[in-house]
Amino acid sequence: MEEQKTPKISVWDLPDVPKGKLPPHLEIQRTRVLCTSDAPTHTENIRYSGAYASMGVDNSLQLEHFHDNFRLEVIRLNEDDMEFDMIGIDAALANALRRILIAELPTMAIEKVLIANNTSVIQDEVLAHRLGLIPLKVDPRMFEYMSENDVPNEKNTIVFKLHSRCERGSSRIKVLSNELQWLPRGSELALSTEKPAVDPTSRPRTYTSFNCSQDSLPEFSNNPIGPKHADIIIAKLGPGQEIELEAHAVKGMGKTHAKWSPVATAWYRMLPEVVLLQEVEGEKAEELVKKCPVKVFDIEDIGKGRKRATVARPRSCTLCRECIRGDDWDKYVTLRRVKDHFICK
Amino acid sequence: MEHGSYQDQSQATFSLTDEDHTLANSLRFTLNQDPRVTFCGYSIPHPSDARVNIRVQTTGDPASEVLKDSCQDLMLICQHVRSTFDQAVVEFKNKNSLDAINIGP
Q1: What contacts B75, CB < 8 A, 6 or more positions away?
Q2: Could you report the predicted ipTM of this complex, rounded to two decimals?
Q3: How far apart are the CA of A75 and the nearest CA of chain B, in angstroms?
């Protein structure tokens, strides 16, 4: 009996093993997060350079590869908000960007409040806290940071004054943020340690020492500095109550206190991908379209009166998993998220 | 600060002050992509101190060199992102102002 000798072929030469690329199911695991009804799976990013060495695939970072593949598209851009897409970047970098936006971008906010008179019902410290949270419309790049030992001068401080009183006999008034007046020449309150000046022509020393008026700088002469929104209510005064104070604003970062954070918030999410595993026709199609609360699916007629469901707006999917609830829908729809496509707002 | 041994330069733990996840996670990402690295990870010993420990083990190259190279790579990536962003904003503004001109009378 002769043994049939089958020629030995190495595994790599078999026709259905792709060389240099991953087989499709592994490719899906590497680039997509599968969102099943229990929990998302394959959420980790396989970034180790030798991860797929046994398959002959090089997973290491190539800068040229990144340069070619990275794309950024701006969807919406207003003065106050923005939405853009980053494609081809990793979650670690997108998160680092988000953290930096919230915590490490400098802005100006009111830090010290010198209160001369406060007979309102709002306590001093609450008033100072509220003033600190008011956003100011000024470019922080024109100012420098001020440390403990620095003297407040025109390069690191902005001075505002607020003087408001409610006359006896009138009804309550609201103190709005547009009553904060900018003082480009610095503080007007004299230091309490000053003895009455012997020489009447010299200026008394105040809390700040501005060498020149901030008005004279070209950026500020036409755009006065003030709060961004003029209708923020700072306090409410009843008849006979008065507030007189001076506020100094300095440069800081969100890390120290949230009032210096330049964004209301910044967030990102991965692009959702909805895939229909099988054809969904007729009544099932209508049912599917009705199920989704954000109308991701749409009906398409394919002739002969038959209808088919298609995925029309996958971007607006909020992953509520309504379409895979109930029996059997798992076979028709899968939800996935693309791992390197981030929608940032 | 680097904890390692003088004999074996290929593995070390770097302790960076005044840093947090923002830098450490991005550094870990670029370190992992380098084919000379066998192991890398970071930990934060206590959340109240701003201190990060990054551990790097390589296939022979001195760990500090590999760390410096990945910092360099990270800087290049960020510069590229920045320039792409600026370009995208300019294109968006041009496209929108063009639309406004087209819609106008």
Answers
A1: none
A2: 0.79
A3: 8
